[in-house]
Write a structure and sequence with these properties.
about 160 residues; mainly alpha; flat
Length: about 160
């Protein structure tokens, strides 16, 4: 089976094994962090490149914090003196918590298989996005070359088709 349908089947088997209340949205963590992100780059030739990168740590392309508010740490209360010293060093980024721990310590194998299937589905989606971008870039380049060949020969019908 392909990864996403197999993932849903494994997830339903885990719900059957543990019971519906034990495998539901109520067990999700209070703060969820992405385990992977999609990075988009443009090749010099114009073809888009997609890659999956770990979702933890700061990405220089990120505009701001994910949670909103725009402030890190505690707010300054009125009447308090401001600390004009150097800011404290930031802690090194840590990898996000494994989501399987939300469902307990001993999770069934079907739940681990479901996670693996969905991770594989994300990897395949990134690969397909890259292939689609490359195909679109190649088609665009082909149309440009065809248009250049038509204008250099000058034998175009009214519909824009090349005549022989």
């Amino acid at each position: 089976m392909s990864p996403p349908p197999q993932g849903w089947l494994s997830l339903s088997q885990a719900r059957y094994a543990l019971g519906c209340p034990r495998v539901s949205a109520l067990q999700y963590g209070a703060t969820m962090e992405p385990r992977s992100r999609l990075r988009h780059r443009q090749d010099p030739g114009g073809a888009p490149r997609f890659e999956e990168v770990p979702g933890w740590g700061g990405d220089p392309e990120d505009v701001g914090p994910q949670l909103g508010g725009g402030h890190e740490g505690l707010r300054q209360r009125r009447g308090q003196e401001e600390n004009l010293g150097p800011p404290p060093p930031k802690a090194p980024p840590r990898p996000p918590q494994d989501p399987l721990t939300w469902f307990g310590v001993l999770v069934p194998r079907s739940l681990r298989q479901a996670q693996g299937s969905f991770v594989e589905g994300v990897r395949l989606a990134v690969e397909l996005a890259g292939l689609q971008g490359a195909a679109c870039c190649a088609a665009r380049r082909y149309r440009e070359l065809l248009r250049g060949a038509v204008t250099s020969r000058g034998d175009v019908t009214g519909r824009g088709d090349v005549t022989r």
